[in-house]
Design goal:
The structure holds two protein chains of two kinds.
Chain A (H helix, E strand, L loop, with lengths): L18 H5 L16 E7 L5 E7 L1 H5 L3 E6 H5 L5 E2 L11 E2 L6 E2 L5 E7 L2 H10 L1 E6 L6 H4 L15 E8 L3 H7 L2 E8 L2 E3 L7 E7 L4 E6 L4 H12 L6 E4 L15 H13 L3 E4 L2 H7 L2 E3 L1 E9 L5 E13 L9 H10 L9 E9 L13 H19 L3 H8 L8 E2 L5 E2 L4 H11 L2 H10 L6 E11 L6 H6 L9 E7 L5 E5 L8 H13 L6 E5 L16 H28 L6 E4 L2 E4 L6 E3 H8 L16 E6 L8 E11 L5 E11 L6 H20 L31 E4 L17 H19 L12 H19 L1
Parallel strand pairs in A: 1-15, 13-14, 18-19, 24-25, 31-32
Antiparallel strand pairs in A: 1-7, 2-6, 2-8, 3-7, 4-5, 9-19, 10-17, 11-16, 12-13, 12-15, 17-18, 20-21, 22-30, 23-24, 23-29, 26-27, 27-28, 30-31
Helix pairs in contact in A: 10-11, 11-12, 11-20, 16-17, 17-18, 19-20
Chain B lengths: L9 E7 L2 E7 L5 H9 L17 E4 L2 E4 L12 E3 L1 H6 L4 H10 L8 H14 L5 H7 L11 H19 L8
Parallel strand pairs in B: 1-5
Antiparallel strand pairs in B: 1-2, 3-4, 3-5
Helix pairs in contact in B: 3-6
Classes of the chains: A alpha+beta, B alpha+beta.
């Protein structure tokens, strides 16, 4: 037992331990690691074509440049490494094979065709530009709509019609429910193509530890353990001799939860050349080659009754997979995610979907923060508004009528997925109240036609799949994603505690939050806990940090490990205190006799015995040391939920969108550190505002990316961001240890639909139908003018 | 074809955080590479190398500038200041505390640039409005925080500076 008097750390605004060194500029990011003097640097030659046959590669000029050590092409690399093949054990999936340098054919602009190894990064880049490649350009399938056709150029010869994945589902009574409904509301939604764009680009540094003949591999990743396993398999190099270390990571957002070809090349060349090898990409490469995301088409049809209740829903989802299935999540993650999550917090009993991932000659897509959920909730929440407009019922009321009611929880949705706890109705009620919804509607009705701005309000009610355990990943066939996480606790001989966690943070504050969790569950002072993660040489194996899983999966592992170690500490303390073990409670790094609380021993005294560093012998039957490792497998998923509500003003003349009010009512179960939770929500919302209003990766018809720089790939700046009003409801998970539900992605999931709906609502009275992202002024003006022209036409 | 790799190196001397450094560099050597790789001061980060993100913000002769947009050779004799220097001499103590208290950073990659922008801004605008703070931050991209707590931290730092000035003996805490 932990003493009731133990001061609780969970739920407190504990300032972050990460801050002091980061604020002094002492955080050691990948490129900050001092490389050995004999380090060689890589630069990749990239394809300028979206699709072309490689006829010849001439590397003589590059090799002749002083300082160049070697140049490798696909043929050279084929001798060193295997292709990357993302195995996904799910019906309807066709795996693409990818060599780490393009072999024979290039399939997107930016794909690597050769790599230079040089003594200096400037020289490596010079040499990469001296590589001459003869290409025979081939027709390219760039846009999703074009690639999804019988006549489209094939991205892979062995993947017919470019369909990399397809799946379908229908609940038993879907057909009859759909056909018997009174009204059908349908809409097609098109989302934009965006990317995570962490401020630190990717990079890695491979060093040989000659004594042990092993590889020390630093990489800016969210998945050190999965990267190590992948490296071992692809390099055919023994996993025990690989140590992957994640340094400070300058933002991840899922972009760095993928394992990339450059990591393989860097490691392979270090082993081959027996020299340290470093590769750091520049921003252009980052935008051309780090995974892209979204780029979906949702065709929805809802069969509704007269009150606006959805009696049956049909989704037809098409996602853009890009040229290859990324590793380890592949092209199925967004396609399955969007089709499965879209039912959200709604009581939809009849559902059918068809979902497909289509290969195109563009950068591979992958798991960007929120994965398919910002898109699928944009679609379903957009449909809710349209149901309201069609029936003349307020869209908030439509939602209230469709939400899963409190008394229905725990609830098993139409796909067989269990929501253990939630607060769907309460979140909506509070959000409407905080944004003064009904008053806004009143004022909106009184708005005049000559007002300079059009105001609208948008709502997004959503559930978020988070903290998925092994079951959740198996269901989706992702067998390279284990699902469990782990924690190792050592009470050291001095009584201080080392906590190793199988995660790798990229700004989430794990060093602080996991110390808080351990403090409460072990009865130790938070300042006595030291947390370390991201080093496969020390930390136990786990699934790592993505998909809002840190708090749930690793938090659970910390709890499990603490519970198991507590018993041993209590037994040794009971021996020292000469009381029954039931009378021992742990609090503030001490074990006390709860019937006689002034009698206590501290963790140091217990540790001295456990480590045999005192004259008192270890009690009979106890083993030495105070260490434990525990794995925790969370449930299929945990289900945070929230409601975002947004008021926007759209300038009639310029179509510039200003966000005037932003309200969030969020429920991610039990909060570990509310300050950090709010920070996650803020950041997600602003990425969502970017995705809704401005961010878009633009390929021209030839597959050239037109905005591979931060001047043209617009992301929100401080002036674009409104004040954000966050409040929390805490309904702890009953399925996950600790009651945590995860919070990494909720912000972006809620923001994209809420902002989109607000703009669509503002423009609704002009007749414009807003159903595509991003909501750039050019698009909004075009839609407003189209309606204007239509009306003028009618009059003539 | 001329080979840029063979460009002749020249001696460049810069004063960084009060200390003089002479290095032989190519004329195309970026200031940020001089600072990070030739001198070894790593607080100044590279986010885009084309002058947009502000992660590489330093002070050149007393004004903030993007170190990815300057060639070291063109700054012969200039006085450069980086986060390491401003942090060591205590000029940033108020801002650093405010960022810590308000959770004004997450991954910390943009933070050095943000701190330098904020320091210069506050020294010229002691009592800024929220909108002025946001405008000043147009210098810097942050992908983690949504700027919410950065704005708050800068506003708090401004308020605390004000208090310190009004009551120099009492400092910023009661």
């Amino acid at each position: 037992m932990i003493a009731p008097g133990h001061p609780r750390s969970i739920g407190k605004h504990v300032p972050r331990r990460e801050d002091p060194y980061l604020l002094r500029g002492e955080g050691r990011f990948l490129d900050d690691i001092a490389e050995p003097k004999d380090t060689l640097f890589l630069s990749f030659a990239m394809s300028p074509h979206a699709h072309a046959r490689i006829l010849a590669i001439r590397t003589d000029a590059a090799r002749a440049l002083p300082g160049v050590v070697d140049v490798y092409t696909a043929e050279d690399m084929a001798r060193l490494v295997k292709p990357i093949r993302t195995v996904i054990e799910i019906q309807g999936y066709r795996a693409s094979s990818r060599t780490v340098l393009a072999q024979g054919e290039v399939r997107f602009v930016g794909e690597h065709v050769a790599v230079v190894v040089a003594e200096d990064p400037y020289i490596a880049q010079d040499a990469a530009e001296l590589i001459e490649v003869d290409y025979e350009p081939l027709p390219a399938a760039v846009r999703l709509e074009e690639a999804d056709s019988e006549t489209a150029p094939l991205v892979h010869e062995d993947i017919p019609r470019n369909v990399m994945f397809e799946a379908a589902f229908a609940s038993p009574d879907f057909q009859s429910a759909f056909q018997s409904a009174e009204t059908i509301v349908s809409e097609t939604f098109r989302t934009g193509r965006v990317a995570g764009v962490p401020l630190e680009p990717r990079g890695c540094l491979a060093l040989l530890d000659h004594v042990a003949d092993s590889l020390l591999f630093y990489t800016s990743t969210q998945i050190p353990h999965l990267a190590r396993t992948a490296l071992s398999e692809i390099l055919d190099f023994p996993e025990p001799r690989i140590r992957v270390v994640t340094p400070e990571v300058g933002g991840g957002f899922g972009t760095k939860a993928q394992f990339y070809t450059e990591e393989v090349v860097t490691a392979a060349l270090a082993l081959n050349l027996r020299r340290p090898i470093k590769w750091v990409q520049d921003r252009r490469e980052e935008l051309l080659t780090s995974i892209h995301a979204r780029d979906h088409i949702y065709r929805l049809e809802a069969a509704i009754d007269a009150q606006g209740r959805i009696k049956a829903l049909r989704t037809d989802l098409t996602t853009n997979a890009g040229a290859y299935s990324s590793y380890p999540f592949g092209c199925t993650l967004e396609a399955t995610g969007g089709a499965r999550m879209i039912v959200g917090p709604y009581d939809i009993r009849n559902y059918a979907f068809r979902t497909r991932a289509i290969a195109t000659h563009t950068c591979p897509s992958g798991a960007y923060r929120g994965v398919a959920q910002p898109s699928c909730f944009m679609a379903i929440e957009g449909l809710m508004d349209r149901i309201g407009r069609k029936l003349g019922i307020d869209p908030a009321t439509v939602r209230q009528r469709n939400l899963i009611r409190n008394e229905q929880l725990p609830y098993t949705n139409v796909l067989g997925v269990r929501y253990d706890t939630g607060s769907y109705e309460e979140c909506l009620r509070r959000a409407l109240e905080r944004i003064d919804y009904w008053n806004f509607r009143k004022q909106q009705a009184e708005a005049r036609d000559d007002d300079e701005v059009l105001r609208g309000i948008g709502i997004c009610c959503f559930t978020e799949v988070a903290g998925a355990g092994s079951g959740g990943w198996r269901v989706r066939g992702l067998t390279k994603v284990p699902g469990f996480d782990s924690a190792s606790i050592k009470v050291e001989p001095t009584g201080k505690v080392t906590l190793l966690v199988s995660q790798a943070a990229a700004g989430q504050g794990h060093l602080t939050t996991f110390a808080q969790v351990l403090a409460d569950y072990l009865g130790v002072k938070v300042e006595d806990v030291f947390v370390s993660e991201g080093d496969t040489g020390t930390a136990p194996y786990g699934t790592n940090t993505f998909a809002s899983r840190g708090a749930v999966a690793a938090g659970g592992a910390v709890i499990k490990a603490a519970q198991s170690l507590r018993q041993k500490i209590a037994r040794i303390a009971a021996f020292l205190l000469d009381v029954d073990v039931e009378r021992v409670e742990l609090t503030e790094s001490k074990a006390i006799d709860k019937e006689n609380p002034e009698k206590s021993v501290d963790f140091r005294q217990v540790a001295q015995i456990a480590y045999s560093m005192t004259s008192v012998a270890l009690p009979q039957g106890e083993s030495f040391g105070l260490e434990v490792v525990e794995m925790y497998d969370p449930p299929l998923a945990t289900w945070p939920n929230a409601v975002h509500a947004v008021v926007v003003a759209v300038d009639r003349r310029t179509a510039k969108v200003s966000i005037e009010k932003y309200v969030v009512v969020h429920d991610s179960g039990r909060l570990i550190n509310p300050m950090i939770v709010d920070g996650q929500i803020h950041g997600g919302i602003v990425q969502g505002i970017g995705e809704a209003l401005m961010e878009q990766i633009v390929y021209d018809e030839d597959g050239q990316m037109l905005n591979a720089n931060l001047l043209d790939y617009l992301m929100p700046m401080a002036l674009d961001v409104p004040r954000i009003d966050i409040s929390h409801i805490e309904t702890p998970s009953i399925d996950a240890l600790g009651g945590f539900k995860g919070v990494g992605e909720g912000g972006v999931i809620g923001a994209v639909p809420a902002v989109t709906n607000a703009v669509a609502d503002a423009l609704a009275k002009t007749g414009a139908n807003i159903n595509r992202l991003p909501l750039r002024p050019s698009y909004l003006l075009r839609e407003m003018r189209r309606q204007q022209a239509g009306m003028d036409g009618d009059r003539q | 074809m001329s080979q840029p790799g063979s460009l002749r190196k020249t001696d460049v001397t810069l004063t960084i955080n009060g200390k003089s450094y002479t290095r032989q560099v190519e004329p195309r050597r970026l200031l940020v590479d001089f600072i990070r790789h030739d001198v070894g001061l790593k607080a100044t980060h590279i986010g885009c190398e084309h002058g947009v993100c502000g992660a590489c913000t330093v002070r050149i002769d007393g004004r903030t500038a993007r170190s990815c947009l300057h060639f070291a050779v063109a700054l012969q004799g200039a006085e450069i200041e980086t986060l390491e220097g401003l942090s060591a001499d205590g000029r940033l103590a108020g801002l650093q505390k405010a960022f810590h208290d308000a959770h004004g950073l997450q991954c910390g990659y943009c933070t050095p640039g943000v701190l330098l922008t904020a320091e210069e801004f506050l020294s010229e605008n002691p009592g800024p409005s929220e909108q002025e703070i946001r405008a000043a931050l147009s210098n810097n991209l942050c992908r983690c925080t949504g700027y919410v707590n950065i704005v708050k931290a800068i506003a708090n730092a401004a308020r605390d500076r004000d208090k310190t000035k009004a009551d120099p003996a009492g400092g910023s805490r009661p």
